[in-house]
Amino acid sequence: MITIHHLHKSFGKNHVLNGVDLSFDQPGITAVLGPNGSGKTTIIKSILGMVLPDEGIIKVQNEDIKGRWRYRNQIAYLPQIARFPENLTVAELLRMVKDLNTAITHDADLIEYFGLQEFLDKRLGNLSGGTRQKVNLVLTFMYDCPIIILDEPTAGLDPISLIRLKELINQQRMKGKTILITTHVMGLVEELADEVVFLLEGHIHFRGSLRKLKEQTGEGNVEKAIAKLLVTGH
Amino acid sequence: MFKILKYSFYDLIRSRWTYSYGGFYLLFTLSLLWLSNDLSKVVISLMNVVLLLCPLIATMFGVMVYYNSREFTELLLAQPVRRTSIFLGQYLGVAGSLSASWVIGVGVPFALYGVFGSPQAANFLMLLFVGVVLSFVFSAIAFFIALKNENRIKGFGLAILAWLFFAVIYDGLLLLSLSMLTEYPLEKFSLIASVLNPIDLSRILILLKLDVSALMGFTGAVFRKFLGTGLGMVVAFAVLLLWVVGPVVGIKRVAERKDF
Question: To which CATH superfamily is domain A2-233 assigned?
């Protein structure tokens, strides 16, 4: 469960977030959408404590996160770009992350699931972008966290891995987890999301179910509905 | 922190750069030892190299490693780990692997040559120590500058400028001011000035140990005159360690307040 209250953040003169109030207390998948620079990643990074807010309170599982770090074992996070130390092998990277966070992991199943066995002894610097994204996914999903945050999870994946990823996300939803996804792939939103949060210029412009989104905009598919929101928002 | 240090060190110790850096010292020391039989001369020649090269490589390496591991740092930041331990761990990994290259590259030829039985052993150890401390000082400065600057080009530029300042410009300015102010008593001024530069300080430390007055220069002579060899070395030692502590505290402070 995440509660964000009155979140403000600017980078220099650029006001990215202007008093965002947002809470994710129901299990299910929320797609956080918005044009480039609308503050999606800033919100996510604030929840993770990577960006420090100018103003506002963020609570994760009812605990104010300011100055804390242990709460992060409640959150599985998939960063946007997967780049790792080039000279480590995949197995060493996994060992390292497990060494840092000693909770129980399901990495063996996930490695098999994404077919990464043959890459375990390869150096990360020699892997292709898609393979690295798979390693990234294994790192994210191997912990059993109540909150999952995925920043552009589909980047660089081939169609088969994409199907597996969607299955994986659905399995996690079945377990009653709170899942946030940012993406520009509207097909993914249509298929997975229970709810949509649409950000525009640091405000929450729309929040509701997919059905509400379609009804409110009078459009039949998410892509057009979002486009319409964008046009009316400006 | 020690877990991150361990992996960062492990990653770097296998990189090509670390090998070529260590290999360079190995070849260089071997050829110096082959050319000259006088160990103290080899130590002095090496000193002149190490005073420029250790800071330069540490600066370059520090900035490079920081910028290259940015995305990985983000991955670590999302883990239940304290912020400062990520950066201090990475910094110690860089400084440690650089020091390892230096100690092995220079130490192996000297050890083969039998330095540890000779009267030069203490001088040689001082040289090794100074190389290690300079690696720690300048990779800390580089890390600090890189943390402060998101822009890689700017970060690289400032780091190189910092190196250039301490290695070259500083001495030039000092010399210039000394020659312009010859009518005034300048001992205290030059004493303070030399303390403010880790490279000068290292040079003084080695030369005090070697006791080569001819090479000591003005600041070194002042150091010995004012503080004596023993106290002079203790002071130089302590200030040099402060030069490590200062930038490390800086890294910690910036890391705690930065957005990623």
Answer: P-loop containing nucleotide triphosphate hydrolases (3.40.50.300)
